[in-house]
Amino acid sequence: LHTPMYFFLLNLSLLDMASISTTVPKSMANSLWDFRAISYSGCAVQLFFFLFLFTAEYCLLAVMAYDRYVAICKPLHYGILLGSRACVHMAAAAWISGFLCALLHTANTFSLRLCHGNALYQFFCEIPQILKLSCSDSYLRVIGLLAIGSCPALGFFVFIVISYVEIFKAMLRIPSEQGQHKAFSMYLPHLAIVSLFISTGMSAHLKPPSTSSPSMNLVVAILYSVLPPAVHPLIYSMKNQELKNAVWIRMTG
Known about the structure:
The chain is mainly alpha-helical. The protein has one domain (about 5-250): Up-down Bundle (Rhopdopsin 7-helix transmembrane proteins). Helix content is about 80%, strand content about 0%. It is a multi-pass membrane protein. Keywords: Cell membrane, G-protein coupled receptor, Membrane, Olfaction, Receptor, Sensory transduction, Signal, Transducer, Transmembrane, Transmembrane helix. GO terms for molecular function: G protein-coupled receptor activity; olfactory receptor activity.
């Protein structure tokens, strides 16, 4: 039952490493050399890869929710519904969806005319900060495209929530305490990762304008762009009993 899960974890790890490498090294270099500039093309490339990896990870988390749903709710059909070919196709669909979404939004964002300078009050290039520099007529066009693009994201969110509800209901019907414990051990790490990913992303893009300030924008951006990739390996590593024992010995010894 665990082979597809670890295949998806491999993809999640690759996305996490690539995502954090898109923003953090440049910001660290800027801090070390007291340099605050990025080229126009460099900003476009950074935005593209960030959107690509962020969107692909969101799609992959929806796929992983389906994986947990089948493993817990339909275990006898697991090998049929999640064979090796199906897993490859679903992972590829997540990567391709991220690529197409990033290509669309990056091309649309950098087709804007910038009328309000060229200073971004953020440590990496992101769409909300670029929109603040654009002209009003161009701004409305991008807002409309973002609204259309949010519909699939909302659909994935509803799918994840429904999957979790069905998983939780199935776990409550497990008669043995050992079976429930095993099901919870499969369910809780993914729930923690999805909750962290979605909550930090929503706090960044749905916060009220009254609370917006350069310092607050910086803190929120770190929360949703750096914290999830950094914490994901820790959450899943804690499932490993040998690792937990080693940490416990280190803490108590």
